[in-house]
Design a protein that fits this description.
The chain is mainly alpha-helical. The protein is built from 17 helices and 6 strands. It has a 4-stranded mixed beta sheet with strand order 2-1-3-4, sandwiched between helices. A two-stranded antiparallel sheet has the order 5-6. It starts with a helix and ends with a helix. The C terminus is likely disordered.
Length: 437
């Protein structure tokens, strides 16, 4: 086993043996996210069950036949309490004390308005005792019942008018005379799919990919900084530096070991997060499956290769930067505090670009974001979906230049005794001492 392989093996073994890393990075996402998703799913099922068993109340101030037809429609297949009261205020008091979630109020004059071809008024009151989702949703269900009745009653009126005027036609066509359909043009290809469906598919992937990239880089930064801090805390770094192994080999071994654990943590995170999304949003309507390959949408083999190269240079630059700064710490706690500063320029571009295109932002903000190397990693993930390989190549070039600079700085630090003697506390002390003198 060569010296490089031995250092990589040693690095992975030490990181895995640390309970904080093994549990917090690899095991916790596999446990936490499924539990969160299951909890949300159970809550949603409870809400759905509550809505299905919801009880409605009806108070009608109109004794007309048309009002009675609406009352009978709402009573069909629903648990309904008919409130008898002398006024609306008395009805609301009885409704408030009942177990009904919604009150359908039909005011006086409803039947007369409908008969004269005017709009009839109906009002729904929600009984919000606990201010929860089930109560609000049940009120919406009552509104949906009235809307469905409104639609079919209007069709019956149209049919009656057609019959009386001896005209032909479809009541449905007269009610909704226009049939609207959507199509999309992508890269010169016409797809019989609405733009909203395509956008939802692209946005979902544009969100998941930056999250995966962001978590992978964050894990890598934490691994690299923790590795150096552990060795400095346990005084094993000094021993490692005395071995007949090149210091650049040690640097490369530490980078590789941290990458391996970071990838394991990212895979764990994505498995847990995927289960969370599938469980938490299982109640949401499914988006129609759309084959986007004909329009050139989706990551092609060339896109995967370029995206892999982007991820490689991004990880190397982040790891080298974390190691370069972690050598100035003397404990794991201080190293973790330091990595929090490094994570900020990674999270900000990810959060912004997940929900907006960079071209939509003000020019000043665009330049600020483009100056951050990790912004180009996020841009590359979306460019891979659209097949814009020039953007990916440009991103690789920018990140590579930044990586070379960071690696040069890391190599300089590793080639001197500063890696053992440097401390942020020492630097602060020297600065104060110099000022006092």
């Amino acid at each position: 086993m060569g010296s490089f392989t031995s250092i990589v093996y040693k690095e992975i073994k030490e990181l895995v043996r640390d309970p904080k890393i093994l549990f917090g990075v690899v095991l916790l996402p596999l446990l936490l996210y499924p539990l969160m998703g299951q909890g949300i799913q159970i809550s949603q099922q409870a809400v759905e069950t509550s809505i299905k068993g919801a009880k409605f109340s009806i108070y009608s101030d109109d004794a007309g036949t048309i009002a009675n037809i609406l009352v009978q429609y709402i009573k069909t297949n629903n648990t309904v309490l008919t409130i008898e009261a002398s006024s609306l205020q008395d009805a609301l008091i009885k409704f408030k004390d009942s177990d009904s979630v919604a009150l359908v109020y039909i005011p006086n004059g409803y039947s007369q308005n409908i008969t004269e071809g005017l709009k009839g008024n109906v009002k729904i009151y929600g009984n919000l005792k606990n201010l929860n989702l089930a109560e609000a949703s049940s009120s919406e269900v009552a509104g949906s019942l009235v809307n469905v009745y409104n639609y079919y009653y209007s069709l019956s009126l149209i049919k009656s008018l057609l019959t009386d005027s001896e005209q032909t036609g479809s009541p449905v066509a007269i009610h909704d005379p226009i049939r609207l359909s959507f199509a999309s043009i992508i890269k010169g290809n016409v797809i019989e799919v609405s733009p909203s469906q395509i956008t939802s598919l692209i946005v979902s992937q544009s969100i998941m990919l930056p999250i995966m990239v962001m978590m992978m880089v964050i894990f890598a930064i934490q691994m690299a900084a923790t590795s150096i801090a552990l060795e400095k805390e346990q005084k094993t770094l000094e021993t490692l530096m005395t071995l007949p192994v090149g210091r650049l080999t040690i640097l490369a071994g530490k980078l590789t070991g941290s990458v391996v654990i970071a990838i394991a943590g990212s895979i764990s995170y994505m498995i847990g997060f995927s289960y969370y999304t599938s469980s938490a949003f299982s109640f949401a309507p499914q988006v129609t499956s759309v084959d986007m390959s004909g329009a050139g949408i989706g990551i092609q083999p060339m896109g995967y290769a370029l995206l892999g190269l982007v991820m490689f240079v991004t990880l190397v630059s982040a790891l080298a930067l974390a190691i370069s700064l972690a050598v100035f710490t003397d404990s794991v706690r201080s190293a973790q505090s330091l990595t929090g500063v490094l994570i900020v320029p990674l999270i900000i571009p990810a959060m912004i670009l997940m929900f907006s295109d960079i071209e939509m932002l003000p020019q000043t903000i665009q330049w600020v974001l483009l100056a951050i190397p990790y912004t180009h990693t996020m841009l590359a993930t979306k460019a891979a979906l659209l097949g814009n390989y020039w953007i990916i190549v440009r991103s690789i070039g920018y990140i590579s230049v930044f990586t070379v600079v960071v690696l040069w700085a890391a190599a300089k630090i590793f080639s001197t005794e500063r890696i053992i003697t440097s401390r942020f506390t020492n630097l602060t002390f020297r600065k104060r001492k110099k000022q006092s003198s």
